[in-house]
Design goal:
By secondary structure, this protein is mainly alpha-helical. The chain is built from 11 helices and 2 strands; from the N terminus they run H-H-H-H-H-H-H-H-H-H-E-H-E. The longest helix is centred in the last third of the chain and has 55 residues.
Length: 287
């Protein structure tokens, strides 16, 4: 997780829990029985719904989405440009070394296809299939998280009912009411916090991460196919820059003066400022 994200997370979390302390004591909101009902019930429902191996995969994916850093689109473009230059200078078989060294599995897959001399359409089919099933696996993990998020408020209501039943049974006993009301109210609180503070944000982060990785994979696929066709590295760079946001490729924009020189465009700089509307209507003059 980036430093600014982590600082923002800590700050917002302090504000959230500070709201509980603003008009009371934090101990008022802590109830072991409510925690056991919501956490235990949600965990039981998750184990009944999904195989334990699926839950382990989801845990690993969520942990990796926060702990590991993705390469940026600009970094991927630079890697592909360097590979294109090496391929033109030393041949495609020279990419065997990069296939063994690179940590990007999708890029290794693409380079392996190049080294094995697959046809362009075969490479595109293989990488598209890889992207398709990668997306399916991520969507499945996201579905698991959102399903567990649905369980939590439901078991919060279960805890609330579990507190209301003894309260109504001992309606004439003030001591019983004081013991059961916290269980009824804190159970709903825990269910909402677990769902909206953890599982739904985990699922949203996983979707965001998946979209970023799919974009990187698309860039890699186009780069690998361009390398296979021995496209000029300069042309390849221009093509891959279209995947980047304008702010990331601003330095690569062609200056206006160079465009004017290339297409022989002349603009009458001596015109009177009041004639701006007419210039806007007629446009620049071509020499």
């Amino acid at each position: 997780m980036k430093r600014y994200n982590l600082l923002g997370l800590l700050f917002c979390t302090l504000i959230f829990f500070g709201g509980f302390l603003f008009k009371g004591n934090l101990s008022f909101y802590f109830n072991v029985a409510s925690l056991m009902i919501v956490a235990g019930g949600s965990a039981t429902a998750a184990l009944l719904s999904f195989h334990i191996s699926r839950l382990r995969i989801v845990l690993r994916v969520v942990r990796a989405s926060y702990s590991s850093r993705l390469k940026s689109e600009a970094e991927i473009v630079d890697i592909l440009i360097n590979l294109a230059i090496k391929s033109r200078a030393e041949g495609i078989l020279s990419l065997q070394q990069e296939e063994n060294e690179t940590s990007i599995l999708f890029l290794r897959r693409g380079l392996g296809c190049l080294v094995d001399n697959y046809e362009p359409q075969q490479i595109r089919d293989i990488l598209n299939t890889e992207m398709y099933f990668f997306k399916l696996r991520r969507e499945d993990s996201e579905r698991v998280l959102r399903t567990i998020a649905d369980f939590c408020p439901a078991f919060g209501i279960v805890g609330s009912v579990a507190g209301l039943i003894p309260m109504l049974a001992g309606i004439d006993d003030t001591g019983i009411i004081l013991k059961t009301v916290p269980l009824a109210l804190t159970s709903i609180l825990y269910g909402l916090i677990f769902a909206n503070f953890f599982f739904i944000p985990f699922a949203a982060n996983l979707r965001e991460r998946t979209n970023q990785e799919l974009l990187l994979q698309k860039i890699i696929m186009e780069g690998v196919l361009a390398i296979q066709s021995e496209l000029n590295p300069t042309v390849l760079r221009t093509k891959l820059l279209s995947f980047l946001t304008p702010s990331d490729r601003k330095a690569d924009l062609v200056p206006l003066a160079r465009i004017q020189e290339r297409f022989h465009i002349t603009i009458d700089d001596h015109l009177d400022p009041d004639a701006g509307d007419e210039t806007a209507r007629t446009g620049p003059k071509m020499s």
